[in-house]
């Protein structure tokens, strides 16, 4: 089955700095890569996603890059704010599994003022 | 309006009991899922289901069974509960069938505690 590795497991940055989270996946059939943000006690919520036919996608302060050949993708958050503090999960999925999400183990991001 | 709702939010029960968690989505999605989040916050797919196919993660014990009375509902039944079943269970849905917009929306979670 699909194996998604995510690093780092914890990340602490100062407000205004950038944060980068990296993931690798094993199944070359995976073609959809979302990133979810989960605040304490809340449900996971999608913040950005990318498909395998695209190399990069940006939405305001958040960007995701995908390298299909190397099977890795990254989340970049610029100008971090304290409200960005949360656990971030990367995931990989494919049509053959009904797009069920195989998650990485999560990155706990702390943004200090 | 809540897009994906699940009940109950909290469930405390004794070992050996049988329990169910209900999930409903009003997004008109064709695919629903159950995920388990353990005490280390790891999120793991348990099932994905549309009206044609049930895909089961091979690591899920057969004490767990999804039941779908209709396209908008996917309930989770758990038999003979064990201590290790304690976790937060999330229901989710997406429009996976078209392959166009596969964003998954999650319910608020059910915290199951087995004592």
Describe the overall structure.
The complex is a heterodimer of chains A (113) and B (115). In chain A, strands 2, 4, 5, 9, 10 and 11 form a six-stranded mixed beta sheet that branches. In chain A, strands 1-3-8-7-6 form a five-stranded antiparallel beta sheet, with no helix packed on it. In chain A, 38% of the residues are buried. Helices cover 0% and strands 54% of the residues of chain A. With 113 residues, chain A is mainly β. The mean pLDDT of chain A is 95. Chain A is globular. Chain B has no helices and eleven strands. Chain B has strands spanning 4-7, 10-13, 19-25, 31-37, 43-50, 54-56, 64-70, 73-78, 87-94, 105-106, 110-114. In chain B, strands 2, 4, 5, 6, 9, 10 and 11 form a seven-stranded mixed beta sheet that branches. A four-stranded antiparallel beta sheet of chain B has the order 1-3-8-7, with no helix packed on it. In chain B, a hairpin with a 3-residue loop joins strand 5 (43-50) and strand 6. Chain B starts with a strand and ends with a strand. The model of chain B has no long low-confidence stretch (mean pLDDT 92). The A-B interface holds A 1, 32, 34, 38, 42-46, 49, 87, 89, 93, 95, 97-103, 105-106 and B 31, 33, 35, 40-45, 48-50, 53, 55, 57-58, 90, 92, 94, 96, 99, 102-109.
């Amino acid at each position: 089955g699909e194996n998604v590795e995510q690093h780092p497991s914890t990340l602490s940055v100062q407000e205004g700095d950038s944060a980068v989270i990296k993931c690798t996946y094993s199944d070359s059939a995976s073609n959809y890569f979302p990133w979810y943000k989960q605040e304490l006690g809340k449900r996971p919520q999608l913040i950005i996603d990318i498909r395998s036919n695209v190399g990069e996608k940006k939405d305001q302060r958040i960007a995701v890059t995908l390298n299909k050949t190397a099977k890795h993708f990254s989340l970049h958050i610029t100008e971090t704010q304290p409200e960005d503090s949360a656990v971030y999960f990367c995931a990989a999925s494919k049509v053959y599994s009904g797009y069920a999400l195989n998650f990485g183990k999560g990155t706990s991001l702390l943004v200090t003022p | 309006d809540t897009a994906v709702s699940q009940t109950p939010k909290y469930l405390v029960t004794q070992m050996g009991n049988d329990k169910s968690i209900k999930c409903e989505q009003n997004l008109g999605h064709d695919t629903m899922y159950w995920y388990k989040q353990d005490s280390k916050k790891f999120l793991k797919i348990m099932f994905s289901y549309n009206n044609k196919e049930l895909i089961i993660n091979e690591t899920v014990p057969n004490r767990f069974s999804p039941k779908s009375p209709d396209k908008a509902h996917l309930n989770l039944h758990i038999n003979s509960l064990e201590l290790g079943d304690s976790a937060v269970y999330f229901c989710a849905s997406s429009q996976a069938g078209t392959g166009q917009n596969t964003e998954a929306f999650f319910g608020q979670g059910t915290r199951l505690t087995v004592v």
